[in-house]
């Protein structure tokens, strides 16, 4: 049975890595795990520390670390993060931080209509001639909202005798 720490390790190992089996974790996801679980606090443990420890525990030309190596890394980081405690207690605390954690997707770009777009599409804020093209609910009135409806009668605009052609005497 996998420990809580190992389960968390696996969840982060496969995060965003479709080819990952969850047995090894790359540096990006290792950093993410440290950040999301609060192991990296920006004071005692910084992203640089995390990168250094990752490089230290991985094999020379490997790009990932196994759970075994990961545990080594956590011991190292535990010593930094919980200076006052002995290494075993520090490691316990690190694992406590990891319990039940999932890769957070906060700060991931969401599609939103902010600022510029919402301002342009809010019909209640329209002024001038554009305002008349929408009713109070913001629904467009369609062609009725346009003042200049096209006259397809065939007469030039402003012609007084429009519609009189057929009425003329045909002698």
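^ structure tokens above, recovered residues below v
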């Amino acid at each position: 049975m996998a420990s809580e720490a190992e389960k968390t390790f696996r969840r982060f190992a496969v995060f965003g890595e479709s080819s990952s089996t969850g047995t090894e974790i790359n540096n990006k996801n290792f950093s993410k795990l440290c950040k999301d679980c609060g192991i990296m606090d920006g004071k005692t443990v910084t992203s640089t520390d995390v990168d250094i420890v990752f490089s230290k525990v991985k094999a020379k030309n490997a790009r990932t670390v196994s759970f075994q190596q990961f545990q080594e890394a956590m011991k190292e980081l535990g010593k930094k993060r919980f200076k006052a405690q002995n290494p075993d207690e520090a490691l316990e605390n690190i694992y406590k931080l990891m319990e039940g954690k999932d890769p957070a997707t906060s700060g991931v770009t969401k599609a939103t209509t902010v600022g510029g777009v919402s301002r342009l599409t809010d019909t209640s804020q329209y002024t001038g001639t554009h305002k008349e093209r929408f009713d109070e609910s913001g629904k467009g009135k369609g062609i009725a909202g346009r003042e200049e409806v096209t006259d397809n009668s065939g007469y030039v605009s402003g012609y007084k005798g429009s519609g009189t052609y057929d009425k003329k005497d045909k002698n």
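The domain at 1-98 is CATH 1.10.238.10 (Recoverin; domain 1).
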